Structures are given as C-alpha cells and as structure tokens.
C-alpha cells in the first residue's frame, strides 16, 4: 500500500506530505484546491508522461516521492530484473524529479531507474481510475487472468497440469527443430560439429599434459639462471675453482685435524666421525649438482615446440573448455550430438509420437479449461450485472467473450500459457446498443462507475494493492451516490482505496479523511493537506452538504450520515 506521499513544487503545491492509511482514504476540498494535482503527482511516480508546466511557477524543478509497503512476491522478479535490492521490511521508495529543461531523474530504493521501469513497477502497485486514465481493466490481456481468478479451484488444477504438459511439449518441439531443421541449417550444424571433433582429435590431448609442458617451459626459459646457480654451487661446495678452497676441502681438513686429537678424549673422536659424515653427505650433494649442471642444456628448438603446443592447448581451451578434461568431455558430447543428427530417423519418429501424445493431452486440458471459464463467465456476468443495476446503470450490459481458437498453423495448434482461449470483457452502456470491447467505451464518470462495478466483484481476486478513484461521482447524486460510497467501502476491505470526491455520501464512508485547501499568504498561493479527526470529518461533510453556510441542521445531517456509514461498515 501507499504509506506516504511527498510532493514539492508541483503546480500550486509548494511542499506537501501525506500519510495514508489502510482502507478507504477520501480527499475532499473546494474545486481548484489541488486534489487533481495530488493524483497527477501519483501518476508521475507511476511513470506517466509529464509536462514541464506542472512545475510551480518560479521553481526550476519538482519532486515527487512515494513510500510503499509491499508484499515481496508482488515485485521481487521486477526488482531482480532491474538489479535493485529488496528491503527486508518490505519498504519500497519511488521518486521522480523533473526540471524545466525536461530532464527526468527517477529512483527506486535509491537506485537510478528509467521512466519505463517506474511504469512497469507502478502497474503492480496502483490502479488509477479517473476520467482520463488507462485502467488495468482496459488491458485486454489481463482479462483472462481476472476471469481465471474468479473461477473455481478446478480451473487452477487444470491449468497447473496443462502447464506441465506444455513445458514438455515445447521441449520436444525444440529437440525436433534441432534434429529436423531446414536442410541448410542441418548441413551447417553437421559441418561445424565435424570440424570441432576433428580439431580436438588432431590435438591428441592427454590429461596432465599442460601442467608438464608448463613445467618444462619454465625450466628452459630459466636454464641460464639455473646453470649459473648450479656452477657456482659446485665450485663453492666441491671444486673450489675461482673461490679457492671449497667447502668440501675445508670439511675434510677439519676431519683430518680432529684425527690428531681423537686419542685424547672420546668426544673428539665423536666429533671427527660426525664431520666425516657431513663430508660424505656433502660429497654426494656435490656429485648430484655436477650431474645436473653437466646435463643442463638450453634447446631453443624444444622451447619452440613446447610454446607451439601450449598455444594449441590455449586456443582449444578458449573454444571448448577451461581444461583438457573439459575439452575431452565436450568432444564426447558433440560426437553424440553428431551421431543423433546423422542417424536421427528413429529418434525423430519417437519424438513425433511423444509430441502427438502431448498434443492430445494439451487439447483435452484446454477444452476442460474452456468449459470452466464458460461457467465462470456466466456467474461473473450475472454478478457484475447486479452491481451495475445497483449503481443505477440498469441499461448497461456486461458480457465475457471467450474465443476458443483450435485452428492450426503449419499443422500445429497455437497453445499458450492459458490454453487456447482468448478472453475479452464486452459492454453496452445503453439499451439497444451492441456490445463493444471494454477498452472502447466512452471515458468519463460513466466509465469509472462501470469500472467500479467490475472492481467490486473482482475485489477479492484482483491483486493490485492500491486503487485510486478520481472523481467517479461526477453526474450522480442520491441513491447512486450512496451506492458508489458503499462499493468503495467494500473494495477497501481487500485493497487500499484512495478516492477524490465532492460527495458527502462517499466522504462519510472513509476510514481516513483529508481536506485539501488552497491558502494565499504574502501574495503566494499554495495547497495544504490536513488529515481530519472525527469532528473535522463531521464539519467537512456538513460543508459539502450545505456549502459555505454550516448550520445545526447540516451538522446533524452529517452526524446521521456518519452513523449510518458506521452501521453499514459493521
């Protein structure tokens, strides 16, 4: 629901903050006070088109911000598509700033968004019903979902089963297309697969080969450094060379010196033996270093071969997988795919049999879904007809047109997620006139009341959280006005409803009343919004009833209306 609305510099509004509540919220006030501006501002954050002359005179920009409390399931997929984080407490903040230069800055939960994103999100949050708005009920594609929501639970069970078979049907069709696509496409696919298999086979890949080659390459590239290190170590430890005496020579000399004193103490003898052991170990090390040095050769041809082989592996990895193992797995997969294409007659025949079987199941389920929709449509027509009569629209007829399209195209039926039905709401607003699509009826208060009748019946199944009715009371009074108020009250049990009205019959039904006033201070005119308490609500209803002059009689009348409204709500 819409919790808070902040408007800055829109028309005669300087700055207004409105805290809205559950149930029925009614906005009243004198003509020109700014009620329609508030609705225009809400339309702004719903992504509707804006004109720069809406910006308050003397200001260079206007800002509208709305705070919603939303069920995660309702908008989660959209926010994920938009890359916008979801707040754990369900808060959704939508804002739009527009300037005299025509620049728009939109945000959803603080993240920059486009006007198109606001529009998509807005369609999930608010339904605006006014004299010049495109209501959700005017979108023909939504009619089938609304009818299905009104139908029995059996329809949903059939639909769930249908969708499972539809998924299988589509997978079979996709596989058949792969196997029996047009001849040129098939030949192109065969050529590609053969080329890829041949390229991988020619490479004669071996598991662990890349790691071994990389190791050899490192040795060759660093062979000079390795040779120098081995030579220096050999001279230091074994031969002496340019360094003079070697470590081995000095250790042997130390062992010899200890041989001259070993007879004086057993400790000296022990030390001599340990030194001799070091000499033996070092002599072995020196021999190994010499062998490594003597066998160390830099082979530029071998390095070139290794580089070339690694390049082959790199190119194959770039095309077919991140490792030799993955490339070999890919080869096995495309060999199987090629085999299926080359020898697919048996597979295609089997798939065609499965497709025919799924088609039969889908057609049966589509027919059963159609039967359930026809049943639901009769009940919906009857219920909405009663509501229209209740709203003094006795000559208005409402029908649900259901077209079951089982025609074929290229030998296949045109199954969609709803079966084979196309649903459209039809209406005739005057006796003797033919039924026309709901989207083509005249706009204005008449259409709004027709919408109100439909919304009253669909209130429990329509998932839009917030509904706005902008001056749907134009041209009505008396009993019809009373009925409109009752319908709005009924709808508000399942939705947040915001209504702009001039009628006391509607204002008295409100759970929250707001008075929109226009004040002039220091030569400047601005709109103010005041939430009314119980006394203020009574006085406002009395003002609507009696105009400028509020008498004891109008106050008593207002109190009576409020009492009757409370009784109705019970």
Describe the structure.
This protein has 18 helices and 17 strands. The model has no long low-confidence stretch (mean pLDDT 85). Helix 11 packs across helix 12. A hairpin with a 2-residue loop joins strand 10 and strand 11 (412-413). The longest helix is centred in the middle third of the chain and has 46 residues, at 345-390. The protein is of the alpha+beta class and 570 residues long. Among the domains are: 1-132 and 446-452 and 462-532, P-loop containing nucleotide triphosphate hydrolases (Rossmann fold); 181-343, no CATH class. The strands form 4 sheets. The protein has a 6-stranded antiparallel beta sheet with strand order 2-1-4-5-6-7, covered by helices on one side. 55% of the residues lie in helices and 18% in strands. The two termini are 23 Å apart.
